[in-house]
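Q: What residues go here?
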């Protein structure tokens, strides 16, 4: 099986696990994780330097999840990679589970930062990037950000400082699905032209289809070969990708499916 085919199968398995997790919890965010599944499949199968058997490997790449509410996609990718048993995914959001509704360094190894309020991840990542430089380490910092959180001022402070300090070991990637909890991003708080705004700050910006595995791999390859400034990959994605009744529907930003909807979703994904 080719690298691309392996990643595509992994993405399908991520989506299946996301649906099962959120349904079992009767809580959580299915839309974003389904939309990010292809990107996380590429990361965990071929892009990230990581070791599931040694989650705190000093030379590992760091992955920061700024929009922590989509953590189901990361948990699924980690379980399918061998970090912990896949069956543990069904404890998602349980009171005693280490798979909380936002990732926490308190409960898990292999998680680089805890999350909660949106907009903080890019700032954390600039700190990680500067620390790597001071320690003369060559790992990369990959940062998942949402489009909606670009309404936060902290995001732009971080964007400015990343350029000022020329942290070219920082690769951010955006889930650009135009949907946040209150509806379309351009109606809630107009963001466009997002890519040009980051370019104006001094970022290297790459646009790609977040559901085309060839484009995803090519975008990360370009990002990794760039030097002199931080990189942002703007991935065009579809909220709820793969499940017909969830796609592009803001309702599924944070609504779990019932058992009947779960059956329909799993049938479409299988």
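A:
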């Amino acid at each position: 099986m080719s690298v691309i085919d392996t990643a595509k199968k992994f993405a399908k398995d991520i989506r299946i696990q996301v649906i099962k997790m959120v349904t079992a919890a009767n809580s959580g965010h299915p839309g974003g994780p389904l939309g990010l599944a292809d990107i996380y499949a590429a990361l965990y199968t071929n892009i990230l330097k990581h070791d599931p058997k040694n989650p705190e490997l000093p030379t590992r790449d760091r992955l920061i999840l700024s929009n922590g509410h989509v953590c189901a996609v990361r948990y699924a990718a980690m379980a399918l990679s061998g970090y912990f048993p896949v069956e543990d995914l069904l404890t998602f959001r349980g009171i005693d589970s280490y798979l909380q509704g936002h990732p926490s360094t308190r409960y898990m190894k292999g998680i680089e930062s805890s999350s909660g309020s949106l907009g903080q991840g890019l700032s954390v990542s600039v700190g990680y990037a500067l620390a790597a430089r001071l320690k003369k380490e060559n790992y990369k910092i990959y940062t998942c950000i949402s489009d909606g959180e670009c309404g936060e001022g902290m995001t732009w402070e971080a964007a400015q400082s990343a350029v000022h300090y020329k942290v070219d070991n920082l690769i951010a990637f955006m889930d650009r699905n135009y949907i946040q909890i209150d509806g379309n991003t351009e109606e809630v708080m107009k963001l466009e032209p997002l890519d040009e705004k980051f370019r104006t700050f001094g970022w290297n910006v790459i646009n790609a289809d977040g559901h085309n595995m060839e484009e995803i791999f090519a975008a990360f390859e370009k990002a990794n070969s760039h030097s002199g400034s931080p990189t942002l990959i703007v991935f065009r994605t579809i909220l709820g990708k793969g499940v017909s009744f969830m796609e592009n529907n803001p309702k599924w930003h944070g609504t779990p499916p019932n058992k009947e909807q779960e059956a329909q979703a799993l049938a479409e994904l299988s």
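A: Context that may help when evaluating the design: The radius of gyration is 17 Å. Strands lie at 62-65, 141-146, 170-176, 179-180, 183-184, 204-209, 231-236.
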